[in-house]
Amino acid sequence: MGKTLFDGIDERYDFLNRLFSACLDIWWRRRMVGKLAPSKDMLVLDLATGTGDSASGILGKGARVVGFDLSLNMLARAKQKIRNPIYQLAAGTVYSLPFRTGTFDGLTCAFGIRNMHETAKALDEIFRVMKKGGRIVLLEFSMPRSFIRVPYSFYLKRVMPAIAAMFSERDAYLYLAESIEAFHSPEELCRLIEGTGFTVCKKTPLCFGNVYIHEATKPV
Ligand SMILES: C[S@@+](CC[C@H](N)C(=O)[O-])C[C@H]1O[C@@H](n2cnc3c(N)ncnc32)[C@H](O)[C@@H]1O
Predict the structure, then answer these.
(1) Is 124 exposed, middle or buried (0-12, 13-18, 19+ CB in 10 A)?
(2) Mean pLDDT over each residue of the chain, to the nearest integer
(3) Burial class (CB within 10 angstroms; exposed 0-12, middle 13-18, buried 19+) of 96
(4) Domain of 119: which CATH number?
(5) Ligand 1 atom showing the smallest separation from residue 4 Cα
(6) Whole domain around residue 165: which residue ranges?
(7) Secondary structure (3-state) at 52
(8) CA of 75 relative to ligand 1 center, distance in Å
(9) Is the CB of 119 inside a 6 Å radius of any atom of ligand 1?
(10) Contact between 31 and 53 (Cβ < 8 Å)
(11) What mean pLDDT is predicted for residues 84-109?
(12) What is the pLDDT of residues 186-205, one digit of tens each?
C-alpha cells in the first residue's frame, strides 16, 4: 500500500484535532458512539479508524471493534494507543472491504466518508458488509449555512493551515478546508445513503451545522 496524505500527519494528528476543535471533537465522537448504542453482543466496524479515538468509545461499551483504515501510520498509532484484544485492525480501502457480506451489526465512520471520493461506491461496500438490521452512524464536517459560514471559511482556509504549518503538514490541512467545502451537503449525503438501500437516513447537526451525524439502517 502506498503512502497516503494521512501517513504524513499521524504524529500530531490527535494534538491538532484537540487544538482546532477546542476539544469539541471528543464530544462529537461521543455523540456518534451514543447514537450507535453499542453493546457487548455487537461487532462494529470503525471505518477510517485513524488513531482509534472513536473505537475507544465503542470498546468502552463492551462491543468488539474492527478498526479499518487506508493509512498504515494511522493504524500504527491506534495500535499503540489502544491495547485491547477485542480491537482488531485491518488495512485497506473502503472500495473493496476484506469482509464477508453481512458481517457487522454496526458501523461508525468519523471524518472519513469525505475522504472517500467515490462516495456511492464506498456506501455500496458499507451496505454489503452490514448485517440486515445493522446500523451505520457517520460523523462528518459540513459547511454551515448560517452567519458563521464566512468566518468559518476564513478559519478553515487561513488560520488552520497557518497553525498546522508550525506542527505538521500545511498542505494536508489546506486539503481539509477544500474537502469540507467540496463535500456533499447533508441532504445530498442522506440521498446517497438511502440510494444505496439503507432506510430512513436521519441527520443531526452539531455546532451550528459545522458537523453532522448521519444515521441509517440496513433493512431486515
Ligand atoms: C480525518 S481521518 C479520521 C480518523 C478518525 N476516524 C478520527 O475520527 O480521528 C480520515 C481517515 O480516513 C482514512 N481513509 C481515507 N481514505 C480511505 C479509504 N479509501 N479507505 C479507508 N480509509 C480511508 C485515512 O487514512 C484517515 O485515517
Answers:
(1) middle
(2) 95
(3) exposed
(4) 3.40.50.150
(5) 25
(6) 5-217
(7) coil
(8) 10
(9) no
(10) no
(11) 97
(12) 999 999 999 999 998 999 99
Q: Is 53 in the pocket of ligand 1 (CB under 6 A)?
A: yes
pLDDT at 18: 95
Pocket test for ligand 1, best of 5, 17, 94, 115 (most atoms within 8 A of CB): 115
Cell of 126: 458499507
Can you give the pLDDT at residue 214?
98
Could you tell me how many helices (H) and strands (E) the chain has, helices first? 9, 7
Integer Cα distance of 196 and 127 in angstroms: 7
Residue of 50, 89, 33, 95 whose CA lies nearest to 66:
89
Beta bridge partners of 109: 47, 138
Residue type for position 199 = T
Q: Mean pLDDT across the stretch 128-143?
A: 98
Distance 217 CA to ligand 1 centre (A): 22
Give the count of domains, the chain: 1
pTM exceeds 0.90: yes
